[in-house]
Amino acid sequence: MASFPYQPDVLGPDFEQHRISQASDYEGPVVCTLVRLREQVPSPRAVLYVHGFTDYFFQRDMALEFRRHGFRFYALDLRKYGRSWLPHQTANNVRDLAEYYADLDAALAIMRAEGSTTVVLSGHSTGGLIAALYAHDRAPRTQLAALFLNSPFLDMHQNWLNRNVGVPLAARLGRVAPDIQLPANLPTEYGRSLHRQYLGEWEYNLAWKPIEVFPVKLGWLRAIHAGHRRVARGLSVPQPILVLHSDKTVTQPGWSEQYFQADGVLNVRHIRELSPQLGPRVTVQAIPGGIHDLVLSRPAVRAQVYQVLFEWLATVLPDPGQAG
């Protein structure tokens, strides 16, 4: 079995990381970072988790839940996010979502070399959009067993005029002027509902996942818009897909208790209506009281998330004794 040089990780002694150098892009050198549990279960089953926008992997509890259910756990900090954000780079910036495919290819190759033959690709929010597009585009050459998408970002949570006029025009401009910067214009209330320094229960690096999300460039907006258009036209991901989302969207302006029990980032109606466009084997389920990142919901809610997830995985994955 292949051996790779892992280093201690910021999450402490239970985790370790392996930095992967990638080809340089329009901003210079590029890396991505594979994180894994240091003590893995002896199983061919594994999960690769991909975070969302203005985000990185910090969800220790999720990793331990996967291990408890017999999965090896890995997470990927994509290029220009979290552990992989280099000083010369614009945070989170890409011009085409396919730029992330090299990161996913590299991570999955390492996982296979380390004995993972039945791999679940898991993506949250923007990571869910990336995971679905990757599974569709790489279907002939990957051996993914299933996808789990946690509140995937399948459309803009904007009013009709912005979604149908403003965003398409800005995306078109992004073709010729990709470096023009815009404020992301997302509410700070969601971040305040998560972090222990404010109103939440979670501890994470506010430099990598700030309360006020990173601004975006027109090139990034164009890449997201192109991904959304592909989903709207329909993908053909061959693997079984589980999409979980909250049962409601935050509707009150400003701070409210809704942020503890609804999606404060995306419109859950978009997720519900667009998810069947991802492929022929999609299961979509609402989680009552869930927030945008369902695994960061209140304890009873995230317990339901894991119950639904692992019951579904038990029905769609091959028997571990026959994997490989």
UniProtKB/TrEMBL annotation:
Organism superkingdom: Bacteria
Record domain Serine aminopeptidase S33: where: 45-256
Record keywords: Hydrolase
InterPro entries: AB_hydrolase_fold, Hydrolase_4, MAG_DAG_Lipase
GO molecular function: hydrolase activity
One Pfam family hit: Hydrolase_4
PANTHER family on file: PHOSPHOLIPASE-RELATED
Official protein name in the record: Alpha/beta hydrolase
